[in-house]
Recover the amino acids of this structure.
């Protein structure tokens, strides 16, 4: 049971990272990314291939971050001159291209069989007995660091400018903000975070294959961001955890309902994900926790109103 | 070479229908409907059920699907898109992704992951000047071209078509002239539902039916609609035919597995050079 919980919590941390990336791109700056799973795959495969060729952990992770953020910058640069609709299809197409490459380029990615035997960092020092717990601690630490970084960025002028662009880009532009540059930056930052998530995913099972990076990953991230409240990083963590708990609970449906087989249970889970996404959009668009807003100090209370007298 | 062009035309004619549907709904509702892939899958399964479970002939099954599928499209609109209509295109777009998950997995829940195919006899391909032309291609061409003609006539020569074009052009002005937007939206979904149903059946004839069926077409469909200029049904047809032929010819140099990657590359290039697509108009942003 402890083992199961450790694994689930590690997976939740990685999912939270992916959702955070989306929160920077979509939550804070209003740019849709339907290719999230492609970005994570790109990061994971970069790390895995470098590690298998004997590169150090630091270099492998750094390369994943750089490649993913450069890719994010490029994609947003192509499509952001146009409208959001094009960004959606360009990112979706990017995800598909990455999926095709991971499936078909056997010499590089191992094709459908994937890449086994990715060396896990520090495994010689920690030992295999407690490695899962150590790895969970690493993941949680990474989430925490990025969370703090994003909270700081949100409260900094950069974050305010991003949200201004999201809410009304014409106003932001007329106030002298370079809208295109800011958006490309936000997309690149999001891309970098997906790179980290990909690296963590590659080390988690020390094995990756294309099926780990399906569109479910993307939809799950959207759900976490919406459930938590667009733009709110703490809400997102809460959202991602509660959704994971709900989804994990459906695993036990099998014990209660005997007439359904495994693939039907899987289908029901996915229906719940999709349906939940729609219901959240309709009934709770503001999410669990509202995003941070700089508010003006409240008006002093003891000023007498003329009318009351 | 000639064979490749013919195959490409076949693929293009199949994609043209959902690409047109996409363009129609985009024109009226101003959001790209990502659920179009899952809708194709559902239509194919619907026709398959009529054809093999109820034992109808494929023509009857297809006709019934084309009649009934608009209902599915309308239900989707009422339950998912209507409550979100005032929230802006990005919200609708995300919702359509959620809807696509729901529809695809409803199919998976009832039909499982196994590939199915229609109960139709295999026919020998015709040979014309050394080129193989199979029976399915002729059916595809017939259905697709008549559907295009129907859409064109409806848009250009009926009062419904005029209302649709008016709403697409300027919703406020259309409302001021007394055009009922709700009615136009309903009619648009019905029309795209019929197009999706027809192409779902055609795709099902072309390849096996499985829950991933629509997913394989979604990028190409979007590529076609964008290539022609989102919101322009005629452009969508031209885009679809171009992509069909380019995709087929590209297999001369690239692995056929990368077909949807090629569609994506073509679109990325077109967006760089001509951001409004081939026939799209530049929108005036206030």
């Amino acid at each position: 049971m402890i083992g199961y919980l450790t694994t689930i919590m590690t997976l939740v941390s990685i999912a939270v990272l992916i959702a955070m990336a989306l929160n920077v791109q979509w939550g804070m700056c209003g740019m849709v990314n339907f290719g999230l799973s492609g970005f994570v795959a790109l990061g994971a495969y970069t790390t895995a291939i470098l590690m298998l060729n004997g590169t150090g952990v630091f270099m492998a992770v750094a390369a994943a971050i750089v490649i993913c953020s450069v890719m994010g910058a490029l994609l947003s640069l192509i499509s952001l001159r146009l409208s959001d609709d094009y960004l959606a299809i360009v990112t979706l197409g990017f995800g598909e291209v990455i999926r095709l490459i991971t499936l078909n380029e056997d010499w590089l990615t191992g094709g459908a069989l994937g890449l086994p035997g990715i060396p896990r960092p520090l495994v010689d020092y920690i030992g295999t007995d407690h490695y899962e717990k150590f790895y969970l601690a690493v993941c949680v630490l990474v989430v925490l660091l990025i969370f703090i970084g994003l909270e700081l960025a949100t409260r900094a002028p950069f974050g305010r400018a991003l949200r201004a662009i999201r809410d009304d880009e014409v106003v932001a532009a007329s106030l002298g903000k370079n809208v295109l540059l800011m958006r490309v930056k936000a997309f690149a930052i999001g891309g970098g975070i997906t790179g980290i998530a990909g690296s963590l995913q590659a080390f988690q099972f020390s094995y990756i294959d294309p099926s780990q990076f399906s569109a479910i990953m993307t939809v799950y991230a959207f759900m976490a961001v919406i459930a938590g409240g667009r733009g709110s990083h703490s809400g997102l963590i809460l959202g991602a955890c509660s959704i994971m708990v709900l989804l994990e609970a459906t695993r036990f449906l099998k014990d209660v309902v005997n007439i359904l087989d495994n693939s039907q249970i899987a289908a029901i889970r996915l229906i719940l994900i999709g349906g939940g996404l729609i219901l959240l959009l309709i009934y709770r668009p503001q999410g669990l926790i509202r995003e941070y807003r700089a508010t003006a100090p409240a008006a002093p209370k003891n000023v007498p109103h003329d009318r009351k007298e | 070479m000639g064979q490749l062009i013919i195959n490409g035309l076949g693929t293009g004619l199949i994609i043209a229908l959902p690409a047109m549907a996409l363009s129609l709904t985009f024109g009226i509702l101003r959001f790209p409907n990502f659920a179009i892939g899952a809708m194709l899958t559902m239509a194919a399964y619907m026709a398959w059920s009529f054809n093999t479970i109820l034992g109808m002939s494929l023509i009857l099954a297809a006709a019934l699907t084309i009649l009934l599928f608009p209902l599915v499209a309308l239900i989707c609109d009422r339950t998912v898109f209507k409550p979100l209509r005032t929230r802006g295109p990005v919200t609708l777009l995300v919702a359509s992704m959620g809807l696509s998950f729901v529809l695809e997995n409803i199919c998976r829940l009832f039909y499982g992951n196994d590939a199915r195919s229609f109960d139709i006899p295999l026919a020998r391909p015709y040979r014309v000047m050394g080129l193989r032309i199979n029976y399915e291609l002729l059916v595809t061409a017939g259905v697709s071209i008549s559907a295009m003609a129907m859409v064109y006539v409806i848009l250009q020569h009926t009062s419904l078509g005029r209302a649709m074009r008016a709403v697409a052009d300027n919703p406020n002005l259309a409302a001021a002239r007394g055009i009922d937007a709700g009615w136009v939206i309903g009619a648009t979904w019905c029309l795209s539902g019929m197009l999706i149903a027809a192409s779902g059946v055609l795709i099902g004839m072309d390849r096996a039916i499985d829950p991933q069926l629509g997913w394989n077409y979604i990028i190409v469909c979007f590529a076609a609609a964008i290539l022609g200029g989102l919101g322009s049904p005629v452009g969508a047809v031209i885009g679809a035919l171009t992509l069909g032929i380019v995709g087929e010819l590209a297999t001369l140099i690239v692995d056929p597995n990368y077909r949807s990657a090629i569609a994506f590359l073509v679109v990325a290039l077109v967006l760089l050079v001509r951001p409004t697509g081939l026939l799209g108009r530049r929108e005036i942003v206030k």
Q: What stands out?
A: Residues 2-212 of chain A form one domain. Chain A has a mean pLDDT of 85. Residues 2-28 of chain A form the longest helix (27 residues).
